[in-house]
Amino acid sequence: MASPGGEYVPVISPRINERREVDFIFETTRINIYFQLVGSRSGAQLVIVRFQNPTEGNWRIIIHKMNRTLPLHINSWLPINSFTGKDTYYVNSTPYTTLTSPANVYIPIVVSAYDNLNESLYIGASRGYTRTGRIAPDLVAPGVNILDPSYGNSYTLMTGTSVAAAHTTGIAAMLFEWEL
User: Fold this and answer.
1) What is the rounded end-to-end Cα distance, in angstroms, of the chain?
2) 0.90 exceeded by pTM
3) Does the residue 2 lie in any domain?
4) pLDDT > 90? residue 42
5) Which domain, by its residues, includes 130?
6) Can you say how many angstroms the Cα of residue 68 is from the centroid of all Cα atoms in its chain?
7) 115 and 151 both lie in a single domain
């Protein structure tokens, strides 16, 4: 890994369930790295990298393949938008593969949202391929400006894939009830 200021982190070999903390000498950045042999949701090896007080600029993450006989597949995500600034992004990213957890678990129903007023997909919804190459989402449900219950016996308009997932869950529950 290389910081915008030119500091390098030496190669870190992953070890089962190990946590590492890296402090930079000339910058106030601290990086916490956690290696997990099997991710609880995906079943794949998981490496979580968290930056504290990162230096502004372009960070480079360099990955070395340790085993030449096994294929190397890397999937990388940034946190959802509310946890990062609008200026945080991948330099060479694609808008066509933006699925995150829980869409990458083995047997999910991946739900996207659409605007039922103009029949368009919700621009903030993830799409593309799962880490195993499955096309997602599986279906779409209303998820833009939906009137939902709120605090204090009131209602509020909500938008997002969580709203669409709740809609889908209700339909699935009614189907199961009908089937029984």
Assistant:
1) 55
2) no
3) yes
4) no
5) 96-180
6) 28
7) yes
